[in-house]
Amino acid sequence: MLNFRIAFSILSLILGVWVSVCAAEEESLQKILDQAALLQQADPDSAISLLMHADVPSIGEESDEFFEVLFKLGVIFEQTSAYDKAMFYLDSAEHVGRRLASHLLISKALNSKGVVYLNRGVYDNALEHFIQALEEAEYTDKQEVKISAITNAGHVAFYQGNLSDAMNYYKRGNEMALASGDTLAIVRTMSHIALVHQVQENYKEALQINEEGLRMFLESKQAPDLVIATLYQDLAVCSKNMGDFEQASEYFERAIEVCTKLDNKEGVAQAYVNRAIMWIESGSPSKAIDPLNKALVICNSVGSKQGQMYSHKSLSDAFVALNMPDSALVHYVRYHEIGEEILSKSTQEQLNEMRTKFETAEKEKQIAELEIEKERQFLEIEQRDNAIERLWIIFGAGFLVFSLIIVLFFIYRHNQELKRKRRRQKHFAEEMIRWQENERKRVAGELHDGIGQSLVMVKNHLQKIRGNYDEESDHSPLQKVEDAVADTIQEVRQISYSLRPFHLEILGLEGSINELLKDIEITTQLNVESRLDGLDGAFGKETEIHVFRMIQEGLQNIVKHARATKVSCEVKDLGDRLRIYISDDGHGFDVSIVFAKVSGLGLLGMKERVDFLGGEFQIDSAHGKGSSLVFILPKSTQHD
Fold it and tell me: What is the pTM of this model?
């Protein structure tokens, strides 16, 4: 009996120690997750480092805790715009959720992946993930996950300009929030509904909804939240648009107070800039200088390039309104420099990413080639040994058969290697073409929507200032600045169009080519003839941009180098294919020499695009006899 009691006591002690260790590990992991959540906004790099050093083996790779680590990493990388890393961790989190058969975890991962697609502007994929997240959430009792998914679907519609669909999604999310009784979710969905009214310029309705949401939150006596700062900013915007600038200024001040309590420095800077812009637009630019300088100090301290850029831009506008062109120019130059830094950094990051992928592919290729070489050497040794054994049996016939096999084997291996190399080269060329077009589209959009719109605003301010001068005043300095800005606007638009022909989306392929030909005829001495029947509808949207680039490159080569007086562009329908013929009466060139000089550009670039589309490319030229280009393209390709 005594021995039994002793054994029972020892067993109880062991179980107690084991439970204590498990509880300590769980508590330690929860502490890491809590600390990461606190650092997520203020110091995301430290939060990532903390999560990376979590003791994964101790928690197991198929557990809710492991999911939370992966999920939190994905969310933080998404907030820092590291979208590829974010998608990697969120994909991993989704796999863990599916292995655990947890609808809640799957829904959370899908919802956050949709946010990544939303931030990247891939709206179809974003909406698909939000709908899938909502379907998974229907199997759970977690209303906040459902509300988040349906609200994010509303964001997709909002960013696409479908305000009616966005309103329906937001109202549906608001109904879910009301049913759950979650005050914060109710206020957030009300804020989204008010934003739609605000965009539709229904400022009175937006103001009333936001005031009601603010009242509900304050009555709930919850801790300050960024949503309250957003409410104050939205109330300020509505008050400003309704002409109540003093009330708007008070709301901005409250937003600053909330962001200060939450140590959200970028939020404080944003409120300062928005209030300053209000004073500039209301005709009191002198009141804007102090808040803009404060915003600039904050942005410099946190290293926010975007904040620095907008602060300098607003300071430039304020000094223009105060008729202080020297100060305005200093800040405008700094604004332009920071914008170029941001654009250059973004481009460099994408180039580094492409370079890393290429280098990784090259290393994998080298490893594969070494493995193939080892296998080949092993096979040679084995065949040599077999040949020696057979040599004593039938020396003559065996020698001939063995030799023939060796020759055929090497021919086969050589042909297979050539095919693999061609496939790799074609795949790499296709990826580079896709990347170039995506980068052109992104840079063109930033030039047109960012720098272009800012220059138009500067020009409008200059015209307004010049209009306020007396008729006897000397307008020439302002006129020179205004002319320089106008020239810059035109140049930005020209660069933007050359990077991404927006006419494709508006006029279609045939209309865009016609516009290009008209532009050539107007800006040069060339006589242009064209017949483009059958272009529209022949290709998918992805293919049209490549066809446009080939024709554009061919025409630009004629303008730059041909010394021609006439150019012709014709399209002929061949049934399942189209034949595009471009010719000129210029001085011509030696085709072999020109192809030898180019490397990935010009004629070789056109040939790569034709190969990419599965078509045929022909060129005919000689000195003194003009030149002609022929593209024969299938109407439907796998690249569409």
Answer: 0.48
